[in-house]
Amino acid sequence: MSDLLTTPKALKQSALKIWQRGDIHRAWLQKTSCFPLDIPLKNIPAKNLLTDYSELQDAIYTLRQDSEKHGYLIIDKAISHRQLGEQKIPAVIRFTNAAIFLSYLAKTAEFIQFQALTEQSLQQDGLLIDWLIRYPFKVMQYAEVWPQLLKVCAYFEAHPQPGCYIRQLDIKGVDSKFIEQYKSILSELLTQTLAQSSYQADISGLKNNGFERRYGLRYDQPLIRLRILDPALAIQGLTDLTLTLSEFKALNIPAKTVFIAENKVTVLAFPDHPEAIVIFGLGYAVNLLADARCLQDRTVYYWGDLDADGLAILARLRQYYPQVKSMLMDAQTLEQFAHLVVHAPTKITEKILKHLSDEENLLYQHLHQECLRLEQERISFSYLQQYLNAGLK
């Protein structure tokens, strides 16, 4: 009979789905109402009234008892039956107001807390209204720390782009570990509450200190190591330098040629070259090199592992510096050192990469399909020297 008439258990599941959609929360935020709220019940065919009469009456009785217990209404409909006459069968469950609905689901205390937290939020910053309507349950997900989250938002509104470390933020009742722990939700809230001029909208995600860069905080910057390959360009006699990322980006050394290599020993042993420097690469974090003065309007060569990942990094680097040329990452080099090639699957799924030439994409597809890798350090140094002596392509 449970297939014919909704049981109290099934009814509660239906009501819970309505709660989980957040309709009640959104209506309250928008100062409207979902009530009276109706939940239609299954339609019972007339033919079942006789064949399943006893079971149906038991199910109706159980549902009416549940109704009396929880305060919701049962709206009946009349069905005429040739043998049984007119029968009243439950057709709709109606919750006349929010109090009955919330009590039925044991959500009264939770909803009161939601109201209190969102009222506090909107009193502090009305700009949160659209975000709250879109994500009502996130408030409850962070209910225990919501007041502290609002304090952080208030601080950044009063002190945009503070230019200090998180450890230095002086927010009453909030320590630096708290901000570190809740960067993700804070980023969502700050995006809603801050003026667009108060953060870097083009920076997203938390990787590579994304939160700090987006909201104007200092951070432990990546270190960029480079060697000056022409003694005439030495900086006060220094040719091997390790700089913070911001220092590197500001460096305007008058080199005409820049090599980027992914192997540290290769960088350390790289041969001298007129008016040139070599940079120790960052792998897939190569995007950090964007906007570096010493790479703009220069001839740039990238030398990574000869595999799908190496060519993917080359493609990524060209997003920022279209003039970048590959170095010893070609079919000829692969064939020359075929005896040192190993099988190494990659997680890359793209069949064609933007910013690669047709020839490079053909090589990329071959390396990807065959899972081949020729590591940079397996290429002999004499081969590198011959390449440099022959004149750069």
UniProtKB/TrEMBL annotation:
Wadjet protein JetD C-terminal domain segment(s): 216-386
All residue ranges annotated as the DUF3322 domain in the record: 8-190
Pfam family for this entry, one: JetD_C
Protein name: Wadjet protein JetD C-terminal domain-containing protein
Organism: Methyloprofundus sedimenti
Lineage, broadest ranks: Bacteria, Pseudomonadati, Pseudomonadota, Gammaproteobacteria, Methylococcales
